[in-house]
Amino acid sequence: MLQQTQVKTVIPYWERWMTELPDIKALAQAPLVKILKLWEGLGYYSRARNAQAAAKLIVEKHDGVFPHNFQDVLNLPGIGRYTAGAICSIAFNMPTPILDGNVTRVLSRCFGIAGNVKEKATNAQLWNLAQELVKRAESLPDLRLAGISDCALQIAENFSYDRTSFAQHTGKSTSLSGNCSALNQSLMELGALVCMPHQPDCSSCPLNPYCIAHQTNRVDNFPHTAPRPQTVQRRFIAFIVEREQKFLVQQRPAGVVNGGFWEFPNIEVDLQTTNLDSASKPFQILGSKPLCKIRHSIMHYRIQLEVYRADTSKNGTWKSLSQLQALPMTAAHQKILKHLV
């Protein structure tokens, strides 16, 4: 859930998830519709399907126990190098590096990495730095190290995550499980709360004596990234067809974006289209004004969804409002549903 989503957004989802699916076996055996419903609104829904696929693999190959070996963790569906490194270092105190956006920013500024962080050579350089730091952190019990390892010492000793906040939220006390865990958690927190993308708080940063970007007054020059892709405007028309207090809906096929989710019938039209009657066949729009207009974004796409009541000779799946509320729907179509309740 924390991949591509902020902690404050994840917390209520995680709490509901753990209530409904308290262990790996429960996740492995749950109907997909339940999993998608619990994930509804978090986006990037392949993560939910990967979570269940990973749970099934853990049950089949690891007797239902989450693996403690880096390669076994990396082999789980939906888990890449960063996530595997985070799990193994934080949970098991293994010397595995991590490199997310926050860590990339800290390392590129501290060590003056001028290349595009998305390019292969620069990315490999950052991974090597992260690996060196966590290896040094593992090498001595008190983190009293020299050279590059002074950074590891300062990060892990002076900027570990907020244990008090964790305890207040969960009702549990916690401690860092070891140097590797401390270092990687601290790197992420340092990037999130001090070495921020804009207006970083360099004066309170424990790394400012070592930071090349700070020492040379070039903090805003790091990290170097390629320009973001230009936004693309798209326009969709959705149709609300009602018969005997039931609504026509369709399920997105597996293997496509938002596969398995339910939605109202819809089509994409040209941005300049004015003759919707012709573009909407086999649906016949009822009335001249839309029920609502919804704007949302998916990656670099900026989407306008216009919703009309309509009729059609097309047959399909019909659901009542209560049935629709129990089905997983994407965020945009959830908003449509709220206009019908």
- Name the assembly state: single chain
CATH level 4 superfamily of the largest domain: Helix-hairpin-Helix base-excision DNA repair enzymes (C-terminal)
Structural class: alpha+beta
The residue ranges in which pLDDT falls below 50 over 5 or more consecutive positions are 143-149, 158-176
Helix content: 40-55%
DSSP strand count: 9
Please tell me the CATH architecture of the largest domain by its name. Answer: Orthogonal Bundle
- What fraction strand? 5-15%
Radius of gyration: 25 Å
- Give the H and E element order: HHHHHHHHHHHHEEEEEHEEEEHH
Distance between the termini: 29 Å
What's the total helix number?
A: 15
Domain tally: 3
Q: Look at the structure and give the mean pLDDT.
A: 88
How would the global form be characterised? globular
Describe the structure.
It is built from 15 helices and 9 strands. Strands 1, 5, 6, 7 and 8 form a 5-stranded mixed beta sheet that branches. With 341 residues, the chain is of the alpha+beta class. The model is unreliable at 143-149 and 158-176 (pLDDT under 50). Helix 8 (120-139) crosses helix 11 (179-193). It is globular, with a radius of gyration of 25 Å.
List the helices and strands and how they pair.
Elements (H helix, E strand, L loop, with lengths): L6 H14 L3 H6 L2 H8 L6 H17 L7 H5 L6 H12 L8 H10 L9 H20 L9 H10 L4 H8 L8 H15 L18 H4 L16 E9 L1 E2 L2 E6 L10 E2 L2 E4 L6 H4 L3 E3 L6 E7 L2 E12 L4 E3 L1 H6 L4 H10 L1
Parallel strand pairs: 1-8
Antiparallel strand pairs: 1-5, 2-3, 3-4, 3-9, 6-8, 7-8
Helix pairs in contact: 6-11, 7-11, 8-9, 8-11, 9-11
